[in-house]
Amino acid sequence: MKKVYSRIEAIAGNVITVSAGDVQYGELATVSSAHGSSLAEVIRLYENKVSLQVFAGSRGISTGDKVRFLGHPMQVSFSDDLLGRIFDGGGKPRDKGPELGENMIEIGGPAVNPAMRIIPRNMIRTGIPMIDLFNSLVESQKLPIFSVSGEPYNQLLARIAMQAEVDLIILGGMGLKYDDYLFFKETLEQGGALSRAVFFVHTASDPIVECLLVPDISLAVAEGFALKGKKVLVLLTDMTNFADALKEIAITMEQVPSNRGYPGDLYSQLAARYEKAVDFSGAGSITILGVTTMPGDDVTHPVPDNTGYITEGQYYLKNGRIEPFGSLSRLKQLVNKDTRPDHRALMDSMITLYAAYKESLEKKSMGFKMTDWDQKLLKYGVIFEQRMMDLSVNIPLESALDNGWQILASCFSPEETRLRSELIKKFWPSPGGGAD
Amino acid sequence: MTEGKVVGVNGNMVTVEVEGDVSMNEVAYVASGGKKLKAEVIRIRGRRAEMQVFEMSRGIGIGDKVEFTANLLSVRLGPGLLAQIYDGLQNPLPELAARCGFFLERGIYLSPLDEEKEWPFTPVAKAGDALMAADTLGTVPEGIFSHRIMVPFYMKGSLKVVKIAPAGAYRISDTIAELEDENSKRFPVTMCFSWPVKRPITCYSERLRPGEPMVTKIRIIDTFIPIARGGTYCIPGPFGAGKTVLQQVTSRNAEIDIVIIAACGERAGEVVETLKEFPKLIDPRTGRTLMERTIIICNTSSMPVAAREASVYTAVTLAEYYRQMGLHVLLLADSTSRWAQALREMSGRLEEIPGEEAFPAYLESVIASFYERAGLVRLRDNSSGSVTIGGTVSPAGGNFDEPVTKSTLKVVGAFHGLSRERSDARKYPAIHPLESWSKYPGLIDESGTEYARDILFRGNEVNQMMKVVGEEGTSLEDYELFLKGDFIDSVYLQQDSYDPVDASVSTERQRHVFRLLFSVLVARFDFGSKESARGFFNQLRQKFIDYNGSAWQSAEFNDLESGIKAFLATQQVGVEAGGNKIREALESGK
Question: What is the complex's ipTM, to 2 decimals?
Answer without folding.
Answer: 0.86
